[in-house]
Protein 1
Amino acid sequence: MEKTKKVSGSIWQKIIFAISLFYVFFHIYTAAFGVVSGVGQKALHIGIVMVIYYLREFVKIDRKMPARLWDILCCVGVIASIAYLIRIDATYALRAGITYTSDIIFGIILIVTLLDCTRRIVGNSLCIVISAFILYAFVGQYLPSFLKYSGMSLKRFINVMYLGTDGIFGTALYSSAAFIVLFIILGAVMQETGVGAFFTDLATLGFGKYCGGPAKVAVVASGFFGSISGSAIANVISTGTFTIPMMKEVGFDNEYAGAVEAAASTGGQFMPPVMGATAFLIAEILNISYYEIVKAAAIPAILYYVGILLTVHLNAKKNGLKGIPPEKMPDKKAVLSKVYLALPLIALLIMMGYFRMTVSRAGLYTIAMTLILVELSPDTRINYQSFRRIIDGSVNGVLPVAVACAAVGIITGVVMATGIAFRLSGILLELSQGITWVLLVLTMVASLIMGMGMPTTAAYMVLVVLVVPALVDLGVQPLAAHLFVLYFGVISNITPPVALAAYAAAGLSKGNPNKTGFVAFRLAISGFVLPFMFVYNNVLLMQGGMFEVIRAFLSALLGVYCLSCTVEKYFVKWKASIPETLILLGTSILLIHPGVITDLIGIAIIAVLYVAHTAFSRRKAAGVN
């Protein structure tokens, strides 16, 4: 009997791997030769990955029979609903809007299974939000005030959600199927072949020997890997297993070590060139080139990471912490001999920036280049086991993103069909009384709440539909508005009380999760200031002349330093008093905000503070002697 179970399990595992293999090569093939026309690309993208998930759940030995029966029923339901949709896709345009009973049946099956996947893969929070929107679609006529609308029949609901391109099979799922999946595959290749480890070693060589070196290594390495990874939590687990023990070894406490990793891992999702794949959605929605997104996001992302680096540096100086001992540093020759592994990311920027190549084509070439380069060394060469892990890792990475994109399509469909976005924008504008900073604060709060417990992609898509129109109506530049909600949707990963990235890091550091979350919040404080600054002055988004952009960047760097001094209450090499800390906080705002007058005032304050503190210290030392 036991032998039969093992054979059966082995057969199922082979079937699942075969489907996963087909799934990965399907997307590589369509990136090379063109996507499947009509709804086919999107339908196969979400359908196959859901089938893989249900089959994986079905073969788990510890699942009871009723649960396994539900898994296989859902699997059959997904196959049937996707197959039906692909079959009618060619003739749907000839129907003149008629919805048949069979459309309703298969549409309901797909929506139910999608909600089930959302609950189990993404989490209850998104599932509850989607369920609320579905309920609103049918009971809107009974609600008061601005929520009231004429209501939606079941036929129209299925027409929008299942058969049209404003619902499940909308822009978000298209981006996932055409672009995002390729960079998730790239991330899996890099992780399994040791490219990610190379970046960690490179960061260790560059920063490890300095005071608090392991913390600086965590910041830089997490920035490298987090740009490719689509999940802050995945980034914490990947790089934190190496960096957190190193930080603890040189003297950082459990909570601080975990917080550094959480804050750095979170920022990877708005760090170019890949930006956790959400940048592709922004480019698709705004209908601008991906290169424009990367260019605009570069300065704020660099300032965010510089802010964390400076903060951990000041903390290490204040507490007298050392760097990594020389005997534990990686071999310089061995690391630099693999510097060619950085070429794919450099080539990616060149392909999209200089040659203006499409995202899918650039992603395909980057994958191909990475696969060729990793074969140059036995340490990174792909064998059968690593190949299997690449395929499994690709599917694991796609699952939450694809399901979230499809599920958020239901919210988008309801919002478009009911017009609630326009009414909500009106309410937000009314609450803010037309004052930009008030609306920005309301948007920040909404973004932090929506981002708690949701993947970045899902949170961003919900916020784009519900909140961004109000910002644009008040005159905020569209790109700045999109990046604003993205930043706070991402930073919610380290914002208590639901700081998921901090909780994951606390698990590795053995620290208190809540304390880790609050420390991560402090470390990432620049991420709460920068979005307001680039909304008010787009120079930080490289919208301006070269001299103006360079001046704004340099003054913002000084401002971020003052902000780090505020967080650590430590200026240059002295512990700052409370009045000095408050002065530094005000100075940081003046310097981060791009403007000649504010820059000059900020620089003057820093100069006076430094001279006064130096003179006071000398007098004090002379008095002691």
Protein 2
Amino acid sequence: MADIKTRDAVKGTIKTIDKAAVASERMKLAYSKIKSKAEQGYYADENSATEYAADRVSAASERITNEGVHQFNKQGQKAVKTTKDNIVKAKDKISEFKQKRAAKAAEQRMSGNSVQTYRSTVSRSTDKAVKGAQQTEKTIKQTARSGKKTVKTAAKGTVKTTQKSVKTAQATSKAAIKTAEHTAKATQAAAKASVKAAQRAAQAARATAKATIVAVKAAVKATIAAVKAIIAGTKALIAAIAAGGWVAVVVILVICLIGMLVGSVFGIFFAGEDSGNGMTMQTVVREINTEYDTRLDEIKSDTAYDVLEMSGSRAVWKEVLAVYSVKTTTDPDNPQEVATMDDNKKQLLTDIFWEMNEISSRTESKTETVVTETDDGHGNIVQTETTQTRTYLYITVSHKTAEEMADQYGFDDEQRQMLSELLADENNSLWSQVLYGISVGDGEIVTVALSQVGNIGGQPYWSWYGFNSRVEWCACFVSWCANECGYIENGVIPKFAGCIQGSEWFKERGQWQDGSFTPEAGHIIFFDWEGDGLTDHVGIVERVENGTVYTVEGNSGDACRQNSYSIGSSVIYGYGIPAY
């Protein structure tokens, strides 16, 4: 009896299932490649048209593919289920067949007559089993063909849709790229135009800035010149405004700011210029100094005396001017600016000066025993005592400080604050410029010397040097001024109490010029009053103007004074030239 190859049905079924799985994998692989290609070629940067198109393509492809896979899985799962059911039925048929065959064999052993019946039964069962297996195989093949067709249809649709979407994305991307290129070209052109415009604007700005600087400098200079400059500046501004232009506006703002400054207590720092009437702060200060010296001379000339003793010092000029500035600009009845000088303001300043400085004098007669020595003609010294009554003239200068004047005038807290700000050390160079026309540098010793003008008796100088009582103190004064500037410590000027000692110091160092020399501010001037070729007085050169040497001297009539001499005067011994 031939064997029934029922396993072929099972084996074929397994092959069919493999083919369906391979088809599914191929479809998935094709989808993956298509999606990867679309992503690699058309996904662009964010916020672009290309990105938008690629995103749309990707989304559409994914939706189509997912739908195809879903349908395939649905059909495949159904086919697999049917196949499994058929396999179970086939197994049941085979099991049933085996059981019947075993029974038939038993029957054959029991009865030969039953063989035919058994065969007939087996034949019918086998036929049914074969037909069932064939039907199962047919069902599986149909399911496989249906799955393949479904997969192919879904894949083809997905590919076509994806390709179409990709082409759309390509077209959109190309259009976006062209648009971006046009935009970039337009942007580059605009940038070049902007750069050129900026360069032209910068050139114009530089030219305008130069013009503005010139205008501002002119405005500042005009403002410092006070009334005369203000009038001239006003006319210029009117002309500038009429001509138009923003430069005029800048000048106006600067003038306004400086005008506010000039109108305040700090306007005193602008008072060094001639305001159009021939008067400056320097000239007025010199006149008041001369008046001060005249009063001293008048006291000495109006009084008969045998011995003169002077002491004291006057107020420092910067304190006088600070009090004047605050009092004048904040006067509740008649406030005035202090940047300019006129006869009325000159009188105000003079009054304040004399309120801050007081000269007092007195005479005293003293009876003293005087010892005189004479030669008796034989080489013997004879001492003779006599009683004499001598008259002493005492002149004393006393002054008030700025704080004392603030109390006297009843300054409020705000006025006292103004006074303090004016007298701050950082303003010393401004005071030197206003008072003496000196800012910094070689004129520093001149500034110090001028600040001492008016001192009488020389006590601050000879006592600083180390003397216990008055000596001829002109050299002590020069040394004191040099020490205040740090020149002695630096070896620029020596510390000396005798004029000959000082002149020799400069000569030894090759820093000497004779009396015919034209000196400069800060040089040390030596005098020879007796014309004996020896120096007996010393001072400091303040300035040189129109062939005249102006000096500041200590112990000039026992006071610090300003004097003047013609260049080459016979009384000038020579000049020490400090290495400032």
Protein 3
Amino acid sequence: MIRATLATTACLASLLVAAPAQAEPDDAFPTVCGDRRPSDPAPGEYGMQLDGTFRHPALTPAGEERFSFPGGAQDLFPKTKGYDPKSHVEGPIKVEASYRGADFTPDYFHTWQNVVDFDGRRYLFQYDRTEARVYDVTDVRKVKIVESLTGKDWKAADYWGAATIQWRDGHYVMIQSFEQKRQVDQLGDSVEKSKFHNPSGVEQLRGETTFKGFKVYRLDGPRRKDWKLLSTVTTDPTLSDPKPGVQQGSGSLDVPYWTGGKYMFIAVAPLDTWRNTEVPTYLYSPGYQAWDMSDLKRPKKVGEWHRKGQIAGEEAAYAKNPRCGNQTSWMGARMPFFVSGRYGFAALGGYGLSILDISDPAKMKEIGHLDLPMSVGGTEADNVDVSQYEKTGMVYVSGYPLGEDCHEPYKDVFQVDARDPRHPRIVGTLPRPAPAAGAPFADYCQRGGSFGPKRSGSYTSPGEPKQGLLTYAFYNAGVQFFDTTDIRRPKRVAQFVPSGFSKGVPDYALGNQTHAIYVEWDRKIVWVFTNDGIYAVSSAKLLGAPTLGRPLAPYRNSDK
């Protein structure tokens, strides 16, 4: 973890300068703290150290450009555009299969995944909005494409939203999120294109007719033709009918949390007034809603929660956050609650970690909160791994990098002791990944691309997560395996790092390497998703002996 110097501490403290606390008349974005956008660090303030470690900058503005430094990737790998062309494996890892190229890369930057079982065969969905694939993965070593969808295959305001799939009343049911797209043409990270200085861009974005809410489907087979739409629900409370048109708010973000029961939880900013966030390209600060899914054709909202400071009119609370005015930080939810028992763990970006009692979804109540150390830019407090909580009381909280070449603070995976959920506290971090023996670089910051944790998989996966083992997609550090059996001394035990360069990947996407994993805990297979394809990885020692053929039992509902 980077420890701030006295100068850095003074710099961060200066962000807390008193500011007027009244709400501003324009509700597109907060202006209560003025313009405190950080400057780009000077080249001498970060880079390789004499001992082979990397010094991260303490504070950086939004941006995803490449940055060179002496001994960096552009010096080490000039023939492959500044990216390491080799793969690296360390520990008891076996690569069972690899599938590279466009057929296995519907989107270079990010995809969502689900599995379903029909007629004794297992299917893997990989998708991001209009680009999607369905694979028969019954034989891990002989994966077959059974459907390929592109933009021409969808109607307006329709696409494959981030989804959960669970078993209900003898059928698979898929709930898809539909939201305001976050990578937009109207706004950008630069000062001139950001929402703070681009009123025409804000107006254009506000006028879009993107459907915002969620859709419920019954799945009678693995292909799109097998879907039956049960309901279409807007999250804009000012509308009674989700017909195409201008809708307020964000819509439902990322994968809804639902395990086939009565209640579902989503991340959402229902109205435009949920807007206190600093990120320059996004207009909303999402909180959470609870929905009664007893009748899949008529879902009903039963509860709603946000942290004070997120909504217009709450500027006094907002101004107390040291990120206020930095025109960089994501402030609010990206994912729904990460649930363990009666508790919902809310990762709120720059607002930190909140723990809610969700046993009564109509009266969700925050019982504990933890402000996390600042790590600006990049995304803070995005993922919470709760797979170990029931046994150890520990959860693992992380953000993820947005820039390349480590031109931002390192994103630690914080070990949070939540045994007393009213008083969560940071008690450690997972070890920073180090290159495998023989790698031609001393630190992953020299490999090219983004370096840091993304997420530890999906709760929608079949089987039971293994106690004492955490798996993380780590961008240019591939998949990292951590042993947390001894909670006092977590350690790295293995890594699989795919090639960081492929001629088939366009230059603008080369830095976005391993961005997702999906673990079939029942078959003991880790699927690795990169900007150049899919890999199937096993480890008899860490996960148990893999099943490379059809699963012993069909996947139905997720436990954790």
